[in-house]
Structures are given as C-alpha cells and as structure tokens.
Amino acid sequence: MSDKPDNDLDQDGPEDARPDVAAAVDELLNTLSTKFASISSEMAAKMDEMSKRIDRLEAELTENKAQDGGSTKP
Questions:
Q1: Dihedral sign, Cα of residue 47, residue 51, residue 52, residue 54
Q2: Which of 4, 9, 19, 34 lies at a 20 to 30 A Cα distance from 53?
C-alpha cells in the first residue's frame, strides 16, 4: 500500500492532461450520440416500412376473404 493519501485525481500526473481527457470524453459522447440518433432513425424507418407491408397484407387478406366468400364452393 502507498503512504500517499487517496485523492480523486492523481496529483503526480500532468495538469494539462485533464483537458485532453475531457475533450476525448466529449468527442466520444458526441460520436455515440450521433450513432444512436442514426440507429434510432433507421429503426423508425424500418418499423414504418414493416407497418406499411403489414397493412398491405391485411388489405390483401381482406380482399381475398371477400372474394372467397362471394364464390360458391363445391
């Protein structure tokens, strides 16, 4: 164990490293935010496309059911 008191930041490290770390963290957060927004937008577009496809399938099923109901079966 060390005789030095525990501090939140290492006092032996360079003071000018803190802004570099803060800048790196900010850049990482911005990158993650951009990626999250992009993925969220893609997911919303895919869900919208799936919803439209389901609506078309439902309409086709309803139309087929109506046609089958009107015809006589042997």
A1: positive
A2: 34
Maximum distance among all Cα pairs of the chain, rounded to whole angstroms: 96
Q: In 3-state terms, what secondary structure has residue 6?
A: coil
Residues in the chain: 74
At 63, is the pLDDT very low, low, confident or very high (cuts 50, 70, 90)? very high
- Distance set, CA 16 to CA 19, 25, 32, 43, 44 (Å): 6, 15, 25, 41, 43
pTM: 0.57
Q: Which residues contact 45 (CB under 8 A, 6 or more apart)?
A: none
